[in-house]
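hey can u check if this looks right to u? its 258 residues, i copy pasted from the old doc so theres a chance i mangled smth
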Amino acid sequence: MSRQSDPIGVFDSGVGGLSVLKAMTALLPEENFLYYGDSKNAPYGTKSAEEVQALSLSIAEYLLEQGAKALVVACNTATSVSIALLREKYASIPVIGIEPALKPAALSLPHPRVLVLATPMTIREEKFHDLFVRFDDEAEITTLPCPEMVELVEQGKLSDPQTDAIIAEKLAPYDGKADAVVLGCTHFPFLKASIRKAFKTPVTLYDGAEGTARELKKQLLAHGILKNDGQSGTVRIENSLGAAEAAFSRELFSQFTI
């Protein structure tokens, strides 16, 4: 039985993964998507690895019960600690994660100064450490944990003077000392405007959403489950906090531009 019309299950610790969902729907407009945001348990980046693994496995099981033909972990923190477990448990379907876009940032200039913004867990996990080591000779890499920026997005404080002030204070020590900024959490693309304002000198921002979208398409093709019937796909958005948060998520998704 063909699974081409079955949905792609996508999840994140909250609304941040909607930035990845936007990139995937842009590249794969015929696919059906089911997005689950776990705002009730956000942020993941300050939890233990065991807690995040348990949450990830529970959500993955729910998405598969809803008929998901593939899983996308649209959360850097969950990817860093849960992707191996998910791929082992669900080996028969594509399981795609996301990682900080350090490679393109590190190779953007001859030995650029790269600032990586991420959650505490993403920064301390082995997956990111391996990535750091791979490109340490190519760039001057600095990491900065930013859990408060996740909270700003979850609270819907995306672009206001208070948000600008909080981010400007956080990034002030790095103003004039970065050529590239890696948005190592899927929440952070929603704060691009405030992040750019925090730097008086031009910086280039990088995130991993488009790379994840390309990998998803590659895996769907490899498994023979790419939907290409000429019909526009659907997007269903759910949230662990209930209907009101899901409605907020749908509004956020509709307004976000890549």
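The chain has eleven helices and nine strands.
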